[in-house]
């Protein structure tokens, strides 16, 4: 008989002694049962012998024992003792864990959360991090210029031309640091998540004081804000309807956007006032949300202004692309619900989602192609682009108007967000979309005025100059606070145009001209847009330094030649780009350029009118056919003036 069997039998003997049963009988029964197999298999275990071959009859003898009263009490004792031991073990484990935990604070940071980025940036500011010996190299900036240690820190030229590289914690490795005299460990883990690899940071801080962790988080947030203070983050939604940071841009100064006097200030003040009025809204039970509708001519600065305002208000921009393939009502709803509390949500070309789900340009192209094909058909000619002309318009967006309306002010719509929507087709928007509560402030952007042209010129050749509006404001403030007028010297110090100014401090007050590296021949052909690329190579060169008076004079001449509300600010800027360092030529050649622009514009308008006429005629011929491209969402042609009281600037 092998050892395990002996142990079992002796155990049974002990148990039965206590219960007074005949143990010998039981044992002999078991021995009989095992004898047949153990005879020819030395060392067979109890299990194999009991359940092999012809034994079932003998094994049955065990059952009366197992269920007999005396044996049962033995089993109960075993269970009780076992249970007691296990409970003690668990209690001890729990106690030990709690005892140990009371000396630590732990926190987990998920990669999707911005706090993960705070920690990564904070880590990079730690002197100990510079000495680490095992790292992962990454080109991800985690929303700030510096996460972990930048390898390119001393090699700026290289870093400008290529993507920067960073040291980040290796997954599963634990790093130890000190924070305010406390021991801190950081471990980064990577797991396969539902949509790809999920990264987490696990932090353990040896302290019993929860405030220390809060302090660390505050420090981390501060480090992050300092790191990105002149930057703003752009977020878009991915195919899973989650927000992803896609870019980090330098903030654009509000002064670089030239609008008619008062417009910028009105929007800025309104937005600032809104952000500071949470309590006011709560007290009155008004949803704490604000919507701005920027409409008007293309290239008039709508998008630029939004980005600039967001930068000024230190808010990130969340772009909601209504025409994104795969986005439907529920996706839009969840996107809007997931917006952070303080942010700028941007819906560009809000009309496009309900017409074709395509960009305006593509719309017009397709319209033209379709009409071209149709006209060819009408005239009996074989259309060259018949296939293209008959190309079905892909309707990528599945967002309905009611879905958008619900998402904008439904129960789940995020509080504290500022919504900016832009459109070039104001009149085609549904009044419900534009009503106060959804779009509270409507701002029209027109083609360039003479005032804008003049300010743009000044800005272009002296980016550091303050605009007329800013200057006036500043003067007003100064006069108010000091009660004195600006002296002559101050005036002079602004004499330098600053255009391509060097670091030489003397230059800031000088009013001399530095020789332009590239002089125009005086009679330059108007460069076509294609030439712009070639001109770029000169942008690092120095242009003339203009005195304030020269700049004013040129700007005035420039503005005189720009017809009121005929060309866009974007095209004016494009024109100036071809004269980056030749302001005089820009003024001289403007007349010719304007002529061409106006001719092209008239031509476009004429074509548009013709198209419109053809459409009308077709409609008359086929009255029952719904006009192509009209959306299912059914945007109303009713003009907004019928809506409640939107504030229109
Ligand atoms: N008012 C302006 N002041 C300064 N720059 C302007 C202004 N308007 C347009 N620009 C310049 O023109 C370019 C295009 O401007 P932006 O994209 O903001 O126009 P938009 O009105 O949003 O056009 P769209 O309606 O086609 O989207 C930008 O590079 C911007 O610098």
UniProtKB/TrEMBL annotation:
The reaction(s) annotated as catalysed by this protein in its Swiss-Prot or TrEMBL entry are: ATP + H2O = ADP + phosphate + H(+)
Membrane-protein topology: Single-pass membrane protein
Which terms in the Gene Ontology molecular function aspect does this entry carry? ATP binding; ATP hydrolysis activity
Q: What is the first-listed, main subcellular location in coarse terms?
A: mitochondrion
Task: Write down the InterPro entries for this protein, in alphabetical order.
Answer: AAA+_ATPase, AAA_lid_BCS1, ATPase_AAA_core, ATPase_AAA_CS, BCS1_N, Mitochondrial_chaperone_BCS1, P-loop_NTPase
BCS1 N-terminal domain: residues covered = 79-257
Q: What is this protein called?
A: P-loop containing nucleoside triphosphate hydrolase protein
Q: What taxonomic ancestry is recorded? A: Eukaryota, Fungi, Dikarya, Basidiomycota, Agaricomycotina
